[in-house]
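ERR on first pass: missing label on line 2. Operator R.T. fixed the label and resubmitted. Corrected input:
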Amino acid sequence: MPQLRVALAQVNACAGDITGNSAMVLDWTRRAVQEGAHLVAFPEMVLSGYPVEDLALRKSFAAANRSELDALARRLLEAGCGDALVVVGHLDRDDEGVRNAASLLYGGEVVATYYKHHLPNYGVFDEARYFAPGHDLPIVRLHGVDIGVVICEDIWRNGGPVAALGRVGVDAVVCLNGSPYERTKNDQRTPLVTRRAAEAGAPMAYVNMVGAQDELVFDGGSLVATSEGEVQARAPQFVEHLMVLDMDLAAGGHTSTDVSPEPVEEGTPLHFRPDALPAFGVERIILQPDPLPPYEPLPPPRTPEPLPEEAEVWSALVTGLRDYVHKNGFPAVTFGFSGGIDSAVCAALAADALGPDALYGVSMPSKYSTEHSRSDAADLAQRLGCHYEVHPVADMVEVFVDRLQLSGVAEENVQARCRGITLMSLSNQLGRLVLTPGNKTELAVGYSTIYGDSVGGFAPIKDVPKTLVWRLARWRNAEAARHGETPPIPESSISKAPSAELRPDQVDTDSLPPYETLDEILDGYVEGDRSYADLVAEGFDADLVERVLQMVDRSEYKRRQYPPGSKITFKAFGRDRRLPITNRWREVRP
Amino acid sequence: MPQLRVALAQVNACAGDITGNSAMVLDWTRRAVQEGAHLVAFPEMVLSGYPVEDLALRKSFAAANRSELDALARRLLEAGCGDALVVVGHLDRDDEGVRNAASLLYGGEVVATYYKHHLPNYGVFDEARYFAPGHDLPIVRLHGVDIGVVICEDIWRNGGPVAALGRVGVDAVVCLNGSPYERTKNDQRTPLVTRRAAEAGAPMAYVNMVGAQDELVFDGGSLVATSEGEVQARAPQFVEHLMVLDMDLAAGGHTSTDVSPEPVEEGTPLHFRPDALPAFGVERIILQPDPLPPYEPLPPPRTPEPLPEEAEVWSALVTGLRDYVHKNGFPAVTFGFSGGIDSAVCAALAADALGPDALYGVSMPSKYSTEHSRSDAADLAQRLGCHYEVHPVADMVEVFVDRLQLSGVAEENVQARCRGITLMSLSNQLGRLVLTPGNKTELAVGYSTIYGDSVGGFAPIKDVPKTLVWRLARWRNAEAARHGETPPIPESSISKAPSAELRPDQVDTDSLPPYETLDEILDGYVEGDRSYADLVAEGFDADLVERVLQMVDRSEYKRRQYPPGSKITFKAFGRDRRLPITNRWREVRP
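pass 2 clean. output:
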C-alpha cells in the first residue's frame, strides 16, 4: 500500500489581499512540511479570497492573481517546500473567461490547474456571473498515489467530476471549499463528502475556509472521508486549524484517461444533462511514480465533538463580527446600549469577538426612556467590563420637534435619528465602527427607523429571529455560569417586555403580534416559501397572517438599506434575497 | 402574398401587479383589434413585470401568473378579441424550473408557450439565478403566415433560436423584449434586429417594454425589420405606444420540423457550444391555414427622428424618477435646494417628471451657507413654480456640536445629517418621498455624508457623472429658451464653483481634482476596466490617478448604502456592480 501524509490547511483568507493570502499559504505550508506532510491543501480561492464578486471581472486583478501564484511556487521552493504538493485555490483568466481555479504547485512550478466544473448561482452564489466552467480533470501521481482535485459545488451535483474520477481511477481526491455556514448545513455536508468518497472509490480530503467575508461566515469543519464512506478525521469549526494525517489508501497505478459519459436517461433533453455531455479531458501528470518507503503513520488526529446548536450559531456570529471589524481595520466598535435584549446580545457578541476594551457602549436616553432601561444598560457595561458613556438626546430631539412641529411617528423617529447622528458623530470623531443591533424579525416586518436605529456599518444579529436572540442570551449566560464567570446579559433585559421606548408606555406588542407567533409565521413565509393559504391551513389566524405578510411585503426598501450582517439561516435578508422595491405583488391584497 | 396586420404594444408594466398588467393587455388588445390587427405583441414578462428578481422563486407568484394568463385568454375572447393572436410575456413554472415565457393566446385559450433559450446573467441581469432555459420552438400558422416567437437575449447570441427558425422556415418572427436603456445602446440594438431578421429570412417585430422599474429604465423604441434587413418602422422612445402596421411578408407554407444542429467548429469543447447541441423541438400549430382575402394595407407609420444624446438621457432620467415615485404611490417629492447644480438639475427633472405642484424644495441653511446659495435656491423654486420652504438647521447643529464637542469632519457631517433628519421628518409628517441629489462622480469617490446628503428613497442622477450634469443643465435651459419658456436652472448654479458649504470658503476642488479630469479617470477605471498602469500610460498624472483610484476602491460601503437611481451608463454604481466591502484589493497600494 502506498502512503501519503496530507495536511488540510483550514485558513482565513481576506478577499483581495493577494499578497497577504500568499504569505499565509507559504507560512502554513512550512508548518505542514515540518510535520512531514507530502500534500498540503488550502481552501477554494485562498489566494484571492472568496467571494470577490465583481473584482473577478477586473483584468488587473486576474493578472495579479496569476503573477502571485507563479511567485508563490518559487517562494515555496526557496523555503524548502519544493517536494510537497501544494493545492491552492485562486482566480484565473484565460481565453474562455474567468476561472475559479485550483493549481498544484510542486518543485517551484505550477504543474497543473483545475477549473471548477459546476458554478453555483443560487442563494448567496453568483458564480455563473463570473466564471466559465471547466471541463478537464488533471490527475497527478505523487509517491505512487494518483490524486484528483475538485472544487466545492463539484461535489454537490450528481454525476459530476468525482464520479468521472471514480471511473477513470484515482487513489485520492482533494476537494477545496469556500462553503458558507448555515444552520444545520453540516447535517448535509458530512454525508455528501462520505458519499462522494465512496463514489470515487478513494478517500477524500475536504478542506474548507474559515472566517468571515462581509455577510458570509465560513465555519471550517474540514474533514477526511475514507473510500468506504466513513469519516476518518474532522477539524474543529470556526478556528484556523492545520489537520495533518496519513491517508488510508488503496493500491495505486491507474493509467486510464478514457472517461465515458454517464448513461443518459431516455427522453432527458441534453440541455438539462450537462454532466452527461462528452468526456472530460483527463490528463495524467507523473511527479513521483514510486511509493515512499514505508514509514510509521501519525496517530489519528483528535476529532472534536460537534457543537451544540446555540454554540454553533454564537460562534458564527462572533466570527462574522470579528472579521468584519478586523478586516476593515476598525480599532473599536460603538453602539447604543438601550437596556433591551438586542443591544445586550450584540454587546456580549462584541465582547467575545473583540474584547471588552474595544467596545464602547453609549446610553442615549430621551424623555421616554425608563429608569430600568438606563440601569440595565449600565449593568450590562459593568458585567462586560467595556467602556460606557451617557449622551442624552432629549435636547436635540426637542429642537427638531419644536422647529418642525413634529408629532406621532415623525416624533418617534426623530428620537431614533438623533441617536443615529450621535453615534455617527462619535464614530467620525473617534474612528469607531457603529454597530446596528436590529434582529431579523424587526427587519422582516420593517419595525425600525431608517437612518435611526438602522444606522451603522454592520448588523451582528441581522439574520437572527427575535426568539433565537432570547435563546442565545440564555445560552450565553448559562455558559458563563457553567464556567464560573459573570453572566454577561442582565436578567431583566431577557425577561422584560420588549419596547422601543419612543412614546410613553410603548411595548412592541402594540404594533406586532407576540414574537413566538410572529417568528413562526415569518419562518414559514420567508424561509419555507409558504403562501397565505398554506399558513392559514396550518392553523394560523387568517387576519394575523394577512397583517404579517403585508408588513413583510412592504418592507423591502428598509431591508435593502440595512447594513450587512452575518448570514446564518437559509434565506437571509440581504444580498441573497433580492426583491424589487417598486413592486405591487402582495401575497395578500390589502 | 399573404397579409398580416401586426400591432406592437409598447407598454409600461409594473413588477408584481399581475392583475393591473393583465387589464392593460386586455385594453391595448381591444384598441389594436379596433385598428384591424391580427397579431398583437406585448413585451417580455408583461404580465408579471420585469425584473421581478426573487419573486420569480415564489410558488404562489408563479401560480398567480399562470391562473391570470388563463383568465386573460378567456377575457380576450369575451371582449371580442378571440380572432387576434396575442403574444404575452409572463413568468411560468414547470417540473424543470421557473421559466421566462411567451404565450400565444387565441380563441380564448393558450395555444402555445415558448420558453426563453438564452438567459442573460451579466450586468443588471441575473436570469441564470431564476430561470431554466427552454429548448423548444413552437411555430403557429395564422392566416397562412408561419410565426415564430423568441425573447430578448435569444437574439443577442449567435446561432440561437432565430437561426434555427430560419433553417426550419418561418414567415415572421416576433421578439418580446425587456431591454433596459443604456447610453448608445440603440446603436447596437437596431443593427442586431435587422441582422437577425435577415438570418431568419423573415421580418421581425421587436417589441420592447417602456417605463422604469427600480434602477432599470426601458426606452421602448420598438421596431419592425424586413426580411432584407431594413428597418420598416420604428416606435418612439420613452412613451407608451401602439404601433400598427402591415408586415412585408413573403409566401408561407413551411412544413419542416427538422432543425439540424449548427456545424461545430473542430476542437470546440461542447460545454462551450450549448447552441450547437441537439436539435430544438419544433412544433407547428395551425390556427388559420389560409391567407386572408387581399385587403388595403395601412399607410406606413411615421418613424420619429432619433433623440439627440442629451434629450435621450434626460428622458431616461425623467422616466426613472416618474415611475419610481408613481409605482411606489408617493403623492409628492421633497429634497434640499442647496443652490448648487445637482439639486437644481434634480429639481428640473422632478418638475418635468411629476409637475411642479408635486415638488417641495427645502432650503436648510447652516451658518456656513452663503447668501448666493440661498438666493439661487429661491430663484430655482420660482423658475419651476414649485413649493419652497426654509428650515434652518443651525440650531440643531449647534446642540450636537456643543454636547458632543465635535470638530473637523465630524462637525461637517453633522450639518448634512441634521438636513437629512429634517427632510425625513417632513417626509414622515407629510408623506412626501425624499430624493437624493448626489451624482455619480461624488458617489464613485465617496464625496458625500452617509445618513446626511445620501438620505432619501431615490437618487435621480446617481448614474450621471458631474460633467454630464452640467451638460444636461445647459441643454435643458437651451430647450426651454428654444420653446420660449423660462430656463428652469439659474445660470449662476451652472457657472459657480461647486461647494458642499460645510466649512467657510470650502470648494469641491479642496478635496477633489477638477471634475473634467476626475470624470475621465473614473470613466477609464470604472467603465473601461483600465488599470493604474493603463491610465498612467494614457497620459494622466500618476499621483492623481493613484489618489482617485484609492478614493474609488475605499468607497464601496457608501455606494452600497446609497438609494437606488436610474441606470443610464454601462456600469452603474448599484446592483450591477458588486464588490466586497471587507476587501483589501487596491488597484494601487497605499
